[in-house]
Amino acid sequence: MYRTVKDYAMITxxxxxxxxxxxxxxxxxxxxxxxxxxYQELVDSIKSISPKTLKLLFSxxxxxxxxxxxxxxxxxxxxxxxxxxxxxxxxxxxLLVEHPVLVWAFFFGLVLASTWFVLKxxxxxxxxxxxxxxxxxxxxxxxxxxxxxxxxEGLPFIFLYGAIAICAMILPGISGSFILVLMDKYFxxxxxxxxxxxxxxxxxxxxxxxxxxxFSRVLSFLLSKYHDITIAVLSGFxxxxxxxxxxxxxxxxxxIDSHGATRPLIESNILPDKQLWEASALAIVGFIIVYVLERxxxxxx
Length: 301
What we know:
It is built from 15 helices and two strands. With 301 residues, the chain is mostly helical.
């Protein structure tokens, strides 16, 4: 596919949006990829990294390898994601602490709109697709109400957490960040990024790369062979995840992190009790952004 410099700049911006979503526990970078219209290409491009294409790389056939893995697309996207994670980690965690209702409201509108538009990609509704949608919503909901557990901090375990989190991160609706919360490692990884703990970052990233390449092959197969039911399940994931991004919450249990700060461990949803109009406005903004992006994507097609 021929693309201009402007096209690749737009892909980088989409990567920045994915990275910003990925650091929020409850919002998936995969959701943003769906909204931006690059989900299928992302999965297929990652899947193309295989022993066959790696053989081209190790044979110094760089140009052939780069073309085979859709290198320009992946590089542009990864640059945006990495830039976003390292530059927005501090401000995102600060916003979640200082203005949680407004942040969650924006993402609630965004995920709600995304669910609606992704559902429209299901070609034909039958009992299998309906069952897949309900199953996806149920699984996502159960994940959002799961109780966090304490897990080890050794580097082999950090590698495993990276592999698990990235699988969730590429799924719309299932947040890799939230999976890290369930494993009691979200703030641990965020602190490692902010403090540039290289050993932790590289170990986590290595696990993520291995997990991503492996899981993308499964997703690519499902999307090509069982497109409608796969989309139905993924949209169910997104609907079920709305429980996590509901803006109004009360803290049931807290914990003290390694810096002595009090963090929420378990939260429950409550009826709106503050910032109703501001939150509603931001939810509408999130919905409109998805609507506009979806219309632009369809117009381009």
